[in-house]
Amino acid sequence: MSTTSLPTPDHAAELRGAMLAAGFTADGLLDLLGAPAYAALARSETVPALRATRGGGDGPLATLVRLFLLQQPVPYVHAASAMPVEAALADGWLRREGDEVHATVDVRPYGGPDGEDWFIVSDLGCAVGGAGGIGSREEGVVLGVGGASTTLAGITVRTPVGSALDVGTGSGIQALHATRHATRVTATDVNPRALGFTRLTLALSGAPEAELLTGSLFEPVGGATYDLIVSNPPFVISPGARLTYRDGGMGGDDLCRTLVQEAGARLNPGGYAQFLGNWQHVEGEDWHDRLRAWVPRGCDAWIIQRDVQDVTQYAELWLRDAGDHRTDPAEYARRYEDWLDEFEARKTRSVGFGWITLRRSDAAEPSIVIEEWPHTVEQPLGEAVLAHFARQDYLREHDDAALLEAHFTLVEEVVQEQVGPPGAEDPEHVVLRQNRGMRRATKVDTVGAGFAGVCDGSLSAGRILDAIAQLMQEDPVVLRDRTPEAIRLLVEQGFLEPVARPGQ
Question: pTM for the full model?
């Protein structure tokens, strides 16, 4: 594990002030670099940004970009015009070699959800857009901003809470977000170096301090419970634990399973736990059943599989992540064989990736929804997560008879599409499509389309069905018997919203 010492946050407030004054922010980067070079950074391509800052002379913003984001040495005099350079040297943010200074850490401007100017601090070259990309094979390396971390931040429920826990905090991105709406934030990591980076991220972002604890999973917090638990864990299913930031050190998907199963006892009533994870698709086993067995007692769950890769794709992805494709071909082949041997031994045919959300409800009949949704969604989704569980509560409390007495409205952003050959008198089928949130689409029959189209809250579901039955010359009793299942699905997926009536 890396033993390189980290900067101290003693003068972080002064450094932050200088960075903001220079425009070293997410918006400032876009203005300086232009859209193509800025987008290239997200692909870990730095040449366009190097060209853009080279042409920008020795202005403070260009200096900070080249120093902290692109990890290029800059003249001492240029650094002195951009920041309190002696304080940065004393605290260890910079090191000096002759007339030049070098950054010791990677600092990336990061825009908060409400326009906050934050900074994520990580190892050199390990932020998205860092000079070397993520391809580091040093065991204790700490990464910066990546797609997984921003995805988790986007799906997390953001209601005000008393306590929040970030398990496996890394460079502190989830903990930083939690400081906006949690009175007390705790962050843990098995890698003490990661906790040091979290402290720097919070300090340089001007955020409150967090409780930082060393250890694996929930071991550091003992019996403490929380209103919100989040984790972007080292979920990679790999042969061994080479890289602390990604390899959990347990066999197969046991780390993700353990994290999920143990979270229930750490949640306060009504609390949420939200994770990213990988899971095995094992020969002869339904992956839905595998994940259902992970859900702890007393918790509702919403698990969404976003992607599936066969074992060869998966192995190649993570071999590239570690930079193994740039090693000796024989060594690469040996490591590739190790991955395939591991999967073969576990009868793993593919690996799923997705989102896991638990809610501590202590319901007699927990709601467990496990689905596959690989399509485009609209982030952030925290409100959509809250709405999902509210709908599950509603459906749990309303049987079919109660649904027929209820009033509904069609969600505002839903549109109807008729699918069929051009010129046909009747469509082959009708699709209801959401333009927000999960952006779901679902087929409905003529009755379902007609029902959804007239749901404005004024009539009960039963009365609408009676009118449709009369129009279609069907038996209203039969229609009432067969339609509640379709209504339930439209409510569950967020196409219909229940309307509270006076006295309810």
Answer: 0.94
